[in-house]
Amino acid sequence: MKRILSLVLTAAMTLSLASVALAAESQPWYAEAVSYVTEHEIMKGTGNGFEPDADVTRASIFELFWNMEGQPEGDPCTFPDVKST
Known about the structure:
Layout: H1 2-24, H2 31-39, H3 58-68
């Protein structure tokens, strides 16, 4: 009888801990970082919001560094493989 009771209590405690762990997973692991970079205007995401699985382009890295420096004025940056606008 004690063995059955201890197994039931162990199962109940395990399930209660699992529900807490699952509740913590409701937001993606990077949610705090996304909040930080948007609040500090370092990153804006894409037209579809933040897409952590999307390809990173040279333009997005350039914009990231430019935003981190406070969007300083300067000469236009050109790349031979990119059309001017």
